[in-house]
Specification:
The chain is mostly helical. It has 16 helices and no strands. α3 packs across α4 and α8 crosses α11.
C-alpha cells in the first residue's frame, strides 16, 4: 500500500522537515531513504574503481614501475578529496554561479547537509557531494596511463591538484550544473540567475566529457610534453608484467562502473537500473569485438587476455555518456563499435610517434569522443522517461541537432583539457624542484626508486646488487655506469603487449 510523506513524518528525523535545519529552496523530502542509501552505496563502489585502476595500470607496466603507478592513483584519492572539500564541490555544483563556473558559496562544504540541491532533489546535498567526489578522484588518476614509467610523484601531485581545479571542475560544471552552458547550449541566455535554464543541450549521463575526454586529452598533452620513454639500448620491451593484476583491475573497474553509471540517476529509479544494465552489456560487447579483431588481424590466432580487458574498459568508457539515454540493443551496437574503434585509436601513436604508454588517450580520450557522438544518435525519449525525464531524443528519433550539440560539447572539453594541461605542465616544470620528468638514470632504474620500495622482492642476487650500486651512485651524484642489460634482466618479465 502506498504511503504519503505526511503519513511517515513520525518515523523520520524532525531535522528533515524543520525549516531551520532544512531551509533550502528544494528541501530533501523522501518517503524513506532509498535514494540516500543507494547513492552512499554507489559512492563506495565508485571509490573502489580507483584502486582497481591502480592494479590495471600497474599490471600493464614493467616491474620497476609497478608500485609507483599504484601510488599515484592512491595519491589522487587523497589530493582530490582535500581539493573537493575545500572548493572543488563548490566550483562544480554551486547554484549561484555563472554559465562558465561555480563560485565559493559551498567552500569547505559549508551549508551542505540535509538540504537538497536543485540538480539532485531526491538526496541530501552532502550525499551528492560524497558521490561526486569519487568521480573527481578517479578522473586525474586516469591521466597517468599516458605517461606511465616516466612520472615524478611530487610534481604529479601538484599537477593533480591544479588540474582538478582548472580543468575538471569547470568541465563538470558546464556539463552537469543546472546553469552550465553545455547543458544549455541551445539557449545559453537562460543560464542567467534571473532566468530558468532551458536544459536543452549536450547529453552526458555519467562523464563522457568531464571524465573520459578531459582525462584522455590531458594524458595526450602530458605524454607529448614528456616525450617517449627512454630505451638507450633499444632492447627493452614494453610488456605487461602481471596480467593477473590487469584482470583484477578490470574486475574492480567493471564492478564499480555499475554505480558509476547506474548511480548517476542519483535516485533509486528504473532509469538507474537501465543505466546499469546497458553498462555491462556494452562492456561485454566491446571485450568480444576487441578480442576477435586482434584474433583475426594482430594476434595470429591467439585469444588475448589483455585484449579482453582492454575491450571491456573501452566498452565501459563508450557507454558512460549514454547510459541513461540508450536502450539495451543500442548498448550492444555501441560496445561492438567501441571495441574496434578504441583498438584502432590505440595504434595511432605508432603512426605519429608519440608514447601514450598504456593507451589512456586511445581508450578514454577517443572512447569518450565516440561515446558522446553515439549518444547523439541513439538517445531515446522512453529511456529518459523512466525517471520522469523529458528529452527530444537523438538522431534515431529525428532530432538531428542533438549530434551537433554532442560534437560541440566534446570538442570544447577536449581542446580545453589539452591546452590548459599543457600550460600547467609548462608552469610546474619551471618551479625549482618540480621538474616533471625523472632523470635518465632514475628512469632506467624505474620510477619505484622514488619510493625506496619495490612491488616484488623477487629479483636475482646479481640484478639486485647492480641496481643497488646504481641507486647509490645516483644519490651520490655520480654516473650510473652499469650495463643496462642488467636493468632488462631485472625489470621485465614474460607478458603481453598492447600496440607497442
Amino acid at each position: 500500500m502506498a504511503t504519503s510523506i505526511s503519513d511517515t513524518t513520525q518515523f523520520l528525523p524532525s531535522a528533515v522537515f524543520n525549516p531551520s535545519t532544512n531551509p533550502g529552496a528544494v528541501p530533501f523530502l523522501e518517503n524513506g531513504y532509498a535514494s540516500t542509501g543507494f547513492l552512499i552505496w554507489g559512492a563506495a563502489l565508485v571509490f573502489l574503481m580507483t584502486p582497481g585502476l591502480a592494479f590495471f595500470y600497474s599490471g600493464m607496466s614493467r616491474v620497476k614501475n609497478a608500485l609507483s603507478l599504484i601510488m599515484i592513483c592512491y595519491l589522487a584519492i587523497a589530493v582530490v578529496t582535500i581539493q573537493w572539500t575545500l572548493f572543488g564541490f563548490s566550483l562544480t555544483f554551486s547554484e549561484t554561479g555563472s554559465a562558465f563556473l561555480g563560485n565559493f558559496a559551498y567552500g569547505g562544504l559549508t551549508g551542505i547537509g540535509s538540504s537538497a540541491l536543485a540538480i539532485a532533489p531526491s538526496v541530501p546535498g552532502i550525499v551528492l557531494a560524497l558521490y561526486q567526489m569519487q568521480f573527481a578522484v578517479i578522473t586525474p588518476a586516469l591521466i597517468f596511463g599516458s605517461v606511465a614509467e616516466r612520472i615524478r610523484l611530487i610534481p604529479a601531485m601538484v599537477f593533480i591538484f591544479c588540474w582538478a581545479t582548472v580543468v575538471y571542475n569547470p568541465a563538470a560544471y558546464w556539463t552537469w550544473s543546472l546553469r552550465g552552458w553545455l547543458r544549455n547550449i541551445s539557449c545559453i541566455s537562460t543560464t542567467a540567475l534571473d532566468q530558468t535554464p532551458c536544459g536543452i543541450g549536450s547529453f552526458d549521463y555519467a562523464g563522457g566529457g568531464p571524465v573520459h575526454v578531459a582525462s584522455g586529452f590531458a594524458g595526450l598533452a602530458y605524454c607529448l610534453f614528456l616525450g617517449r620513454r627512454r630505451n638507450p639500448s633499444g632492447r627493452e620491451e614494453w610488456k605487461a608484467h602481471n596480467l593477473t593484476h590487469v584482470f583484477l583491475g578490470t574486475a574492480l573497474l567493471w564492478f564499480g562502473w555499475f554505480a558509476f553509471n547506474g548511480g548517476s540517476a542519483i535516485s533509486a529509479t528504473p532509469r538507474a537500473g537501465m543505466a546499469a544494465i546497458v553498462t555491462t552489456i556494452s562492456a561485454s560487447a566491446a571485450s568480444l569485438s576487441w578480442v576477435l579483431f586482434d584474433y583475426f588481424f594482430h594476434n595470429r590466432g591467439k585469444v588475448s587476455g589483455l585484449a579482453f580487458c582492454s575491450g571491456a574498459v573501452a566498452g565501459l568508457v563508450v557507454i558512460t555518456p549514454a547510459a541513461g539515454f540508450v536502450a539495451p540493443w543500442a548498448a550492444i551496437v555501441m560496445g561492438l563499435i567501441g571495441g574496434v574503434f578504441c583498438n584502432l585509436s590505440c595504434r595511432i601513436k605508432n603512426v605519429f610517434g608519440f608514447d601514450d604508454s598504456l593507451d589512456a588517450w586511445g581508450v578514454h580520450g577517443m572512447g569518450g569522443v565516440l561515446g558522446n557522438l553515439l549518444t547523439g544518435i541513439f538517445a531515446q525519449k522512453w529511456i529518459a522517461s523512466l525517471d520522469g525525464g523529458v528529452i527530444e531524443g537523438g538522431w534515431l528519433e529525428g532530432n538531428w541537432k542533438q549530434l551537433g550539440y554532442q560534437a560541440a560539447g566534446t570538442a570544447v572539453i577536449a581542446v580545453w583539457s589539452f591546452v590548459i594541461s599543457y600550460l600547467l605542465l609548462l608552469i610546474i616544470n619551471l618551479i625549482p624542484g618540480l621538474h616533471i620528468r625523472p632523470s635518465e638514470d632514475e628512469e632506467l632504474l624505474g620510477t619505484d626508486i622514488q619510493m625506496g620500495e619495490v612491488a616484488y622482492e623477487l629479483m636475482a642476487t646479481k640484478t639486485s646488487h647492480n641496481l643497488a650500486v646504481m641507486a647509490d651512485r645516483i644519490h651520490k651524484g655520480a654516473a650510473a655506469n652499469v650495463d643496462d642489460s642488467v636493468l632488462i634482466e631485472g625489470s621485465t618479465m614474460n607478458g603481453s603487449t598492447r600496440h607497442h
